[in-house]
Amino acid sequence: MKILLAGLTLVFTINVHAAPEREGWKLVWSDEFDQPGLPDAKKWTYEVGFIRNHEAQYYTKARLENARVENGNLVIEGRKEDWVSPDAKAQKAKFTAASLTTEGIYSLTYGRVEVRAKLPRGRGMWPAIWMLGTNIRTTGWPKCGEIDIMEFVGHEPEKVFATMHWFDYGKGKHTSLGGNLPGQKPSDDFHLYAVEWFADRMDFYYDDTKYFTYPIEKAGTDEKNPFHKPHYLLMNLAIGGGWGGQKGIDESIFPRQYLIDYVRIYQKK
Prior knowledge:
Distance between the termini: 34 Å
CATH architecture: Sandwich
Structural class: mainly beta
Order of helices and strands: EEEEEEEEEEEHEEEEEEEHE
Number of strands: 19
CATH class: Mainly Beta
Number of domains: 1
Low-confidence stretches: 1-16
Strand content: over 45%
Number of helices: 2
Shape: globular
């Protein structure tokens, strides 16, 4: 924008990162990560502590060192540091990171979720983009359902994974089904990770490549099927753990940054 005033030219730069419309879809929710500082509290909350999978990191809350917006990206940073949680439990950790979620803030049933991100390389890294059923607090996992839009583990640096988790009532146990796309370099640059969630299936994408389709009826044909119910979004950087730490953690690589350019959610027109 230029304004002429008394012979002077004043130049104001306005950086507006507008989310484009996608043909056949209507944008209903997004975060373009244009405002520096902590992530927008109107859109994101945090998991806090040691949460799952015997992972090595402590997830912190509203701590710039672990989650911040800078240079137009959300930065989720894994750090090697001596950490004692500032709560009554005073839990100790060797690593810190962050897990951002929309639980209690935003959820969806059906639609397209897309995230443009650059993944951190290195043994022990386990970044993810995923969703959980909003009824997890009452039904528990895996009955709530889990949609893994993207998982990456540092000891398999040329693959990205998409996986579905649910409870098979007929077999009486947790069940999962997924796919992966080999021969990629997700740590070298930004790529688009997406799921298109319909009433009959979910299609998973890496950039423009559809590499896995999940038929929703596999989770049942009655009201217990979690994939006809609302889910909320999570984005986290785990360190180590049951899968991410299968070949150990390379402690020489820290700090490591998981960069997210934007998150956009669409509904079918």
